[in-house]
Amino acid sequence: MDILVIGGGGREHAVIKTLKKSAKCGKIYCLPGNGGIARDAECHPVKATDIAGIVEFAKTHAVDFAVVTPDDPLCLGCVDALEELGIPCFGPRANAAIIEGSKVFSKDLMQKYGIPTAASRTFTDPMSAISYLKASEYPTVIKADGLALGKGAVIVNSFEEAEQTVKEMMVDKIFGESGSRILVEEFLTGPEVSVLSFTDGNVVVPMVSSMDHKRALDGDEGLNTGGMGTIAPNPYYTEEIANRCMEEIFLPTVKAMNAEGRTFKGCLYFGLMLTPKGPKVIEYNCRFGDPETQVVLPLLESDLLEIMIAVQNGSLTADMVRFSDASACCVVLASSGYPKKYQTGFEIALAETKEGEDIFIAGAKKEGEKLLTAGGRVLGAITTAKNLRDAIGRAYALADQIQFENAYMRRDIGARALKVLGEE
Ligand code: AMP
Ligand code: GLY
Question: Of 142, 144, 146, which is closest to residue 133 (Cα–Cα)?
């Protein structure tokens, strides 16, 4: 089968390398891909948001199956457009991708169907939001309704900060139309867990849990980033909690989407907080997480392409999805200065990888035979091992062998997880 993958980050590199293990996998095309992905797939410079360009490409290259991973094309109806051509796709249609595309939609869904989440109020004009915030308790959380590159949630500690944030989102429109509606949400506390799941709209099969490290600096300090590293499984996510999440969150969400006439097929991502009052949904994503995918897929023992086909044609069963009981760690190497200003264009010297090690490229371009940095997050060094401590040690050993000018990484990926396990 010839496969078209849409996207161009570390997550897509992980998806492509995992698909290549399948006996059914033929040629892989990636739009737009990146300089590193080009080693594993045929990349073409069509933007992931250029739906007409993607459709044209799929037609002329007669692909058999498409995998759409980023949020923008999913919310723009990329799957709908490809399906109209008769190309089966892994990924939700636009009417289901809204579960990520609109936080007001997902909050209303959870409230209507009794799915545990933070209490919240929606506002469409800044004055009523501000007067509500005058009487609020702090900290509280302000969220832009639409997609905002993962930066649309702001924790504010005072009325002054809240007023400023409302102004930025609703008046200055720093996130464009995404900020025309906002949510003011109860501040929750507790460890965070990412659970990616496969669902065909009927059966939901969770993947191994993971833990992201969103802040730029060690000790969870500094600015929010797209993710500086991940580990799997997440030690906070016990079997008891997993069972509870299945009953209270995963199944009710899939059923709620069906009841709304918005059947979700693809990877449904549950961003959870394990609060003192039980697990609650912080966010849904309509896609694989990045960089969660980079630790989850290396632990998958079954055939990803077969699972994706079953998700698409509605024949998914739990026994099709098997994970190893090993652990994985991904350390992201970024350009120093990320997520603010940073320089790019430096040559990357990669390292040899052994069994249980991999390098997924996120922001790099090819120049002749050279690979040059081209983004904030440049790549992830990933390893699997029988336990988390070894996975972390090996991931850092691999990361330390990779070189480019300006490279920056956090030094404490997985440290908190080890503490929970009593293995520090
Ligand atoms: P989101 O964009 O909704 O994923 O939020 C980004 C991050 O903000 C989350 O990973 C949490 O760390 C934090 N956050 C979001 N909502 C809340 C909340 N209600 N209470 C506490 N922290 C939150
Ligand atoms: N790692 C969080 C996300 O993919 O949104």
Answer: 142
Ligand 1: atom nearest CA of 189 is 21
Helix (H, G, I), strand (E, B) or coil at 153: strand
Task: From 93, 150, 133, select the one nearest 283 (Cα to Cα).
Answer: 150
Phi, psi at residue 112, to the nearest 5°?
-65, -40
For ligand 2, atom 2, name the residue with the nearest CA.
Answer: 289
Q: pTM surpassing 0.90?
A: yes
70 ligand 2 Cβ < 6 A: no
**Got the DSSP string for 346-391?**
PBPB-----TTEEEEESSEEEETTEEEE-SSEEEEEEEEESSHHHH
Nearest CA to ligand 2 atom 3: 289
Q: How crowded is residue 273: how many other Cβ atoms within 10 Å of its Cβ?
A: 19
Query: Which atom of ligand 2 is nearest to 271's Cα?
Result: 2
The pick from 11, 106, 149, 212 for probing ligand 2's pocket by mutation, whose C-beta has the most ligand atoms within 8 angstroms, reads 212
The single-letter DSSP state of residue 65 is E
Structural domains present in the chain = 3-93 (3.40.50.20), 119-185 (3.30.1490.20), 192-421 (3.30.470.20)
Reduced to 3 states, what is the DSSP secondary structure of residue 31? strand
Strand partners, 357: 383
Provide the β-strand partners of residue 384.
Answer: 328
Over the stretch 311-359, which tens digit does the pLDDT of each residue have?
Answer: 999 999 999 999 999 999 999 999 999 999 999 999 999 999 999 999 9
285 lines ligand 2 (CB under 6 A): yes
Report the C-alpha gap between 402 and 396 in whole angstroms. 10
